[in-house]
Amino acid sequence: MSLLFSPHAVGPLTLKNRVVIAPMCQYSAVEGVPQPWHVQHLGRLAISGAGLVIVEATGVEAAGRITPDDTGLWNDEQAAAFAAIIRDIRTYSDTPIGIQLGHAGRKASTSAPWKGGGALAADDGAWETFAPSALPFKADWHTPTQMTEADMDRVVAAFEAAARRAERAGFDLVELHAAHGYLLSEFLSPISNQRTDAFGGSAENRARFPLRVAQAVRDAWPRDKALGARFNGSDWVEGGVALEEVAAFGRALHDMGYDYLHLTSGGNVARADIPGDQPGYQLPFAAAVKAAAPGAAVMAVGMIFDPRQAEDIVASGQADLIAIARAALDDPHWAHHAAVALGEEERLPKQYGRAAKGTWAGYGRRG
User: Mean pLDDT of all residues in the chain?
Assistant: First the structure.
């Protein structure tokens, strides 16, 4: 029997298999409200055969959006739109649906990738950005406002309120976004955090604000629903976050009651040398956190396309869950096809049953 397609508990939530659709920004919302694009995108992934689907990075406040086109959960209209999508999905799929809550920090107020991906001009609706230190991500990007403790209080409250809206909308899981050079990741990295107060300097100080946010979300999110966090294993640059600091942060989250830890990397430095063309290049980070936080469910991600590699990762104990992203965009039925490759039943929706492996010839002339 395939371990990848065996059930696995993530806190109070038991997944039917260990394949997770990672959050992927769609840059297609209007004022933070998901649109028809999200209906088809999430609906398609809900029948993908994965054990869990996580909605894209969603801003907890308007200033925390990456682009003007990001989804949000800072008001009830946004929550109601997500609730409608989830209600529709529940009429045809029982796949758990989670959402990633984040704040873009100094990487906010930019345009969507297909619109250039750079900092917005004032005429395009640019807004004030916030970060641990007044250091721009790139020379031609906005210089962020260094956050005061009052700013931190506001952001903590925004994360807490967004978590409560996520519960009311019917999400099964929340993932805290502390990766990829966005706000919480910026605090954790000595590259982007050069404060000299209690929130900068030592690894303990740099983790202080992210852990405060994490605790607020933990307190706001019900214990009978799953909660996890995504964070960086490396900045891929000299002087960046150290692996022992990453492991300590993961252990602190686990001790706080986070049900899983999702390891990724990069994003704090614009020109980092990231070996992203190597499948599984982030696995050492997952393995290190798993060793540091015994009992934690650890999720690996990063150019994992081959089902047999995914199987080997969980079989070897490097990680418990496998997150896929681009592979699912390329092949929305990746999980169904991976099951067949590993000798498991395909389990396509009955409406698609005619396309299941071994049955196609029987439907050949009828389409």
Answer: 95
